[in-house]
TrEMBL record:
Residues 110-129 are annotated as: Disordered. Residues 353-404 form the ACT domain. This is Arogenate dehydratase. Pathway: Amino-acid biosynthesis; L-phenylalanine biosynthesis; L-phenylalanine from L-arogenate: step 1/1. Residues 110-128 have a biased composition (Polar residues). It comes from Trapa natans. Converts the prephenate produced from the shikimate-chorismate pathway into phenylalanine. GO terms for cellular component: chloroplast stroma. It catalyses: L-arogenate + H(+) = L-phenylalanine + CO2 + H2O. Residues 164-339 form the Prephenate dehydratase domain.
Length: 404
């Protein structure tokens, strides 16, 4: 008995040698006493039956056969005593599925020729079942987004090559620092504009993009919020970079000799107090490392740069002053974007970003936020952006998306 219920519950691992189990043979014996010749013939047939290759590959069909054998002797089979018990995933009873009564099948399986016929019929039915079942399963699974695994978060893509991360600026910029912090062994892909970092990923020139979204001292980087609305990439990670703004100059140049300071507007704004103490003009450039390269290549002795110590090393400048930012604990938050979304797991907390628009009306934002408050969901940041007559892309379940 234990044997019967055991192998019925393990589809796909049905050991064919169990089919002619002693229990099943003894069942048949009680029904029809046999001569020695018949017994030998029977054993031969059973041996043939048990080594049939098709038997091994269609466990469901075999399970049905055993359940029907058991039905001849209610005392030997719990399964046989419950004809309504379903063994197929569609709830169909085996006897009905095969178009045979359980008793007839049992007799055939021990009486000669027809037993081998029944043995081949059963696997075919199992085959059809497996086929229908797996086709249905494949269709269902293909409509789901591919779940990312731990390997997607590591610095090496599946094919063994280095992860390519696009960032805005040139080597030595803070954005590149953020990319290297997130993926220490990555290959960084410099881009001229923020939008180019998105396009690099969309066109498969890079695997991911890293871009600043917020500075703890200066606030949101709105340009990147707007780009997020217009592109189809997904936020998959976040990097928080403590930014150490340094004042750089050509080797041998002293602080008092500087008349101009070049840098990215964010860096200049974050270093307002220190720059106010110097008698210098402030000039915006596209990125901090680009400013360092410009001063180095043009040998501008009266011009300083706000950039990182790594940029000083890369472009042959010296650090004249360190940590010149107003807020010494300033942190810039970067987001990592990818073509595929991350499926949140339950073993650790995940941050989620949601974008929505509301129709005009009193209290609409209040009502939308109540959805979170009533469920005790903590919000880390709220940002509002004007739509500027640009349609917002709405993503549906299949992640195709349309403009609204
Ligand atoms: O110019 C750089 O180095 C950048 O990486 C850009 C950027 C920014 O856009 O905010 C990034 C971080 C710093 O706060 C300053 C500049």
């Amino acid at each position: 008995m234990t044997c019967i219920s055991h192998f019925i519950h393990i589809p796909g691992t049905f050991p064919s040698k169990r089919v002619p189990s002693p229990t099943n043979i003894s069942i048949t014996f009680t029904q029809r006493p046999l001569q020695l010749f018949h017994l030998l013939l029977l054993l031969l047939l059973l041996l043939l039956f048990s080594f049939s290759p098709s038997e091994q590959s269609f466990p469901w069909g075999s399970a049905a056969a055993v359940s029907q054998l058991g039905r001849t002797d209610p005392g030997h089979s719990r399964i046989g005593s419950n004809p309504d018990r379903a063994f197929f995933s569609n709830g169909e009873r085996p006897g009905r599925l095969l178009g045979l009564s359980p008793l007839r099948t049992t007799i055939r399986s021990v009486q000669g020729e027809s037993s081998s016929k029944s043995a081949t019929e059963l696997p075919q039915t199992g085959d059809q079942m497996n086929g229908i079942h797996s086709r249905r399963l494949q269709k269902d699974l293909s409509s789901f987004p591919r779940p990312l695994s731990v390997s997607d978060l590591s610095s090496v893509p599946e094919n063994g090559s280095k992860m390519r991360i696009s960032f805005k600026g040139i080597s030595g910029s803070y954005s590149e620092d953020a990319a290297l912090k997130a993926y220490p062994n990555c290959e960084t892909v410099p881009c001229i504009e923020f939008e180019d970092t998105f396009k690099a990923v969309e066109l498969w020139l890079a695997d991911k993009a890293v871009l600043p979204i917020e500075s703890s001292s200066v606030g949101s980087i709105h340009r990147n919020y707007d780009l997020l609305l217009r592109h189809r990439l997904h936020i998959v990670s976040e990097v928080q970079l403590p930014v150490n703004f340094c004042l750089l100059a050509l080797p041998g140049v002293r602080l008092e000799q500087l008349k101009h300071v070049l840098s990215h507007p964010q860096a200049l704004a974050s270093s307002d107090i220190a720059l106010g103490k110097l008698n210098v003009t402030r000039e915006n450039v596209d990125d901090t490392a680009g400013a360092a390269q410009l001063v180095a290549s043009k040998k501008l002795r009266d011009t300083g740069v706000i950039a990182s110590a790594r940029a000083a090393e890369l472009y042959g400048l010296t650090v004249v002053a360190e940590k010149i930012q107003d807020d010494l604990d300033s942190i810039t938050r970067f987001i990592v974007l990818a073509r595929d979304p991350i499926i949140p797991r339950t073993d650790k907390p995940f941050k989620t970003s949601i974008v929505f628009t509301l129709d005009e009306g009193p209290g609409v934002l209040f009502k939308a936020l109540a959805v979170f408050a009533l469920r005790n969901i903590n919000l880390t940041k709220i940002e509002s952006r004007p739509q500027r007559k640009r349609p917002l892309r709405v993503v549906d379940d299949s992640n195709t998306g349309s403009a609204k």
